[in-house]
Design a protein that fits this description.
Length: 254
């Protein structure tokens, strides 16, 4: 499979529908080249072609990671586009696993000469195929439901590389406890990435904000002064205490 085919598959999987013009911009090729590359993908049933666009053929019965990417897709694409505008060519990044991080990786294909460390096989494969990038896959044993690594080797790779930005996601956000994840391994990886980064960028869509603080089983991620939260809608006033030292950026979905 060609590099272009894989990039097209990633773009369509993440967005659901992508215009030929947008694909040409992502790949930095002509519309004619895009049409040539997608022909075998259409023939194999991996994507479907409609007038001027390519449509995903993924079903709700696909693996959980792909199903999560289908949730709140518009919001996640907007957040990812906003983050891609913050990142410069030549930047160094640590990116965690998760559906929002996958969208971020897709948007970052427009950047060049990035140094990326990630524990997500999806993020790694998406950005490794961009010419000039240096991508370090952290870990050796991947989880079956999302292709993420949390073994000791993952931490060893992350801890060796200092980066400008750590791009993270959260499972839930509450007024009293802040940004939360479900598993200890996710919290440990996030903290390792934050420890090597000059700045943390937290990417969370509005559905993650929950006014109920009762679930104490989730693990907290501590953001610091100067860190950034990118979301698609302004949080309710009850969450204002979370942004006293942290910059909040609300992106447009239009």
């Amino acid at each position: 499979m060609s590099r272009y085919e894989q990039q097209i598959r990633n773009a369509v999987s993440l967005r659901g529908t992508v215009s030929v013009q947008d694909l040409a911009s992502i790949l930095d090729v002509s519309d004619q080249t895009v049409r040539r590359v997608i022909r075998p993908l259409v023939e194999r049933g991996e994507v479907r072609k409609v007038h001027g666009a390519i449509v995903s053929t993924k079903r709700e019965t696909d693996p959980p990671f792909l199903s999560r990417m289908a949730l709140n897709r518009t919001a996640k694409v907007a957040i990812a586009s906003e983050i891609a505008g913050i990142v410069d060519d030549g930047d160094s990044l640590a990116i965690d696993t998760g559906s929002t991080s996958a969208f971020v990786a897709q948007s970052l294909q427009q950047r060049r000469d990035l140094t990326v460390v990630t524990n997500s096989a999806f993020v790694a494969s998406t950005l490794a195929m961009v010419e000039g990038n240096k991508v370090f896959m952290a870990g050796t044993q991947l989880r079956d439901h999302d292709g993420a690594a949390f073994d000791r080797a993952a931490f060893e790779v992350i801890e060796r590389i200092s980066v400008a930005h750590a791009i993270l996601s959260a499972s839930r956000v509450t007024p009293g406890r802040g940004f939360l994840v479900y598993e200890q391994c996710e919290a440990d990886i996030a903290n390792a990435m934050m420890g090597t980064a000059c700045r943390t960028i937290m990417a969370v869509d509005q559905t993650k904000f929950d006014a109920d603080d009762s679930d104490v089983g989730l693990l907290r991620l501590e953001l610091g002064a100067g860190d950034l939260v990118v979301t698609d809608a302004a949080p309710q006033p009850a969450f204002s205490n979370l942004f006293s030292d942290v910059e909040l950026r609300v992106c447009s979905k239009g």
